[in-house]
Amino acid sequence: MQVICNTEDFQITEKTAVTLGKFDGIHKGHQRLLNALLEKKKQGLKTVVFTFFVPPIPGREDVRQLTPNDEKKKFLEAYGIDYLIEYPFTEKVRHTAPKDFIREILFKKLCAAFVAAGPDFCFGYERKGNVALLEKMSSLCGYEFEVFDKVSYKGEPISSSRIRACISEGQMEDACEMLDRPFSLSGTVIHGKAIGHTIGFATMNLVWPEDKLLVPIGVYLSKVKIGGNTYQAITNVGHRPTVEKDAAKSDLLLEAHLLQYSQMAYGEEIEVSLFHYERPEVRFSGLDALKEQLKKDTLACVTYFEERGNDGKKEGFIEEKA
């Protein structure tokens, strides 16, 4: 996949199938649009996802994303997309008239032969451009345009904001259904205090990324992918109040204890998927009390996945269409 990031200086000369939006999370609704592009790819069109560049800003809670830029790129490349355009959102671009956006970007720069969008997609200055305008301009600019209905879950349309709200409340199963995968993060395993080794619960530790949406502090039933294999795990996201003297000032860490895995993994890349919020983080009276609770958490983890299978989903979920 070719990534064109934070520049207006590009030109695609091949005919393309384009979809437009923020694509934070790349949830089931987004995937409906991507699948439409892949159908056009079979007809010889190059596929393009057009979005705007969101720079990572450390410490800015409002720019934390379900899928930060690097995650989004990996997901779209694996999906089979040919081009990802992360267009700069400058003052000039912000003031672009909707018709100029269609003529100058869709028609000239992207060479669009097919355009797909959701029903509430808006663009251009003061978001005055909409799907009605895209439809109206399609014949003038020579592209086919199609609007795709939203996908619904539990009677309500799926959206990135709805998924963010679920995650902020620890409703990981609902987020998983709407994303079509568990909420996860990847990173390089760092050294910790090695206290887990002393009580038989060694952990793999990650620093929580500054551009990744935060989850509630607490313990999660999870899975960890490392070296091509996946293991059940109990994962704590928090500040380790039992072992840190000043926990409130410590880094937010993810600590995953993998069941049936005992090797060292410092420097390894892992992916941690959070399936279920089990309990809040607690300051225990000592390591013995912590160890006893971890035994209970381990049993809960094994039971959870025995009941739900490898994908963590209960049987009977049916995708709805709005």
Structural notes for this entry:
The chain is an alpha/beta fold and 322 residues long. Helices cover 30% and strands 26% of the residues. It has helices at 28-41, 69-79, 91-94, 98-109, 131-141, 160-168, 172-179, 195-198, 287-308; strands spanning 2-5, 16-20, 46-52, 83-87, 112-117, 144-147, 151-153, 156-157, 183-188, 204-207, 218-226, 229-238, 253-258, 269-279, 320-321. A hairpin with a 2-residue loop joins strand 11 (218-226) and strand 12 (229-238). The two termini are 32 Å apart. Its EC number is 2.7.1.26, 2.7.7.2. Belongs to the ribF family. Keywords: ATP-binding, FAD, Flavoprotein, FMN, Kinase, Multifunctional enzyme, Nucleotide-binding, Nucleotidyltransferase, Transferase.
Number of strands: 15
User: Helical region count?
Assistant: 9
Percent range of helical residues: 25-40%
Q: How far do the termini sit from each other?
A: 32 Å
Number of domains: 2
CATH superfamily of the largest domain: HUPs
What does the radius of gyration come to? 22 Å
User: Which strand-content bin applies to the residues?
Assistant: 25-35%
Q: Could you describe the largest sheet, including whether it forms a barrel? A: 6 strands, parallel
CATH level-1 class of the largest domain: Alpha Beta
CATH architectural type of the largest domain: 3-Layer(aba) Sandwich
The low-pLDDT segments are 315-322
Write down the CATH topology of the largest domain: Rossmann fold
Mean pLDDT: 89
Inertia-based shape: elongated
Q: Numbering strands along the chain, what is their spatial order in the largest sheet?
A: 1-4-3-2-5-6
The chain-level structural class is: alpha/beta
Helix-strand string: EEHEHEHHEHEEEHHEHEEEEEHE
